[in-house]
Amino acid sequence: MIKNGIVFSDKMNKTRVIIIRKIKKNKKYKKNIWIYKKYFAHDENNLYKKGDNVSIIRIRPLSKKKKWLIIKKK
Questions:
Q1: pLDDT confidence bin for 74, thresholds 50/70/90
Q2: Which CATH number fits domain 2-73: 2.40.50.140, 3.40.50.410, 3.20.20.150, 2.40.340.10?
Q3: pLDDT digits (tens, 9 = 90+) for 23-57
Q4: How much is the pTM?
Q5: Distance from C-alpha of 27 to C-alpha of 22, rounded to nearest angstrom
Q6: Would you list the domain boundaries of the chain?
Q7: How many CA atoms lie within 13 A of 52 on its CB side?
């Protein structure tokens, strides 16, 4: 599965934190709510910087939290 998001943090070596936001509608109050989710993604050559729009894909686990790979910049 491919997901699109924004690089939220580039402080770790070969790892980027990607944030993905979705809209969810509250059933009772009929109000839109932004839902944010963080993903730890592998970046072998440290190419992507904070604020870049990227696409990530699920891979085998590389560490406890890192299970995604950045495939391209949008």
A1: confident
A2: 2.40.50.140
A3: 999 999 999 999 999 999 999 999 999 999 999 99
A4: 0.86
A5: 16
A6: 2-73
A7: 18
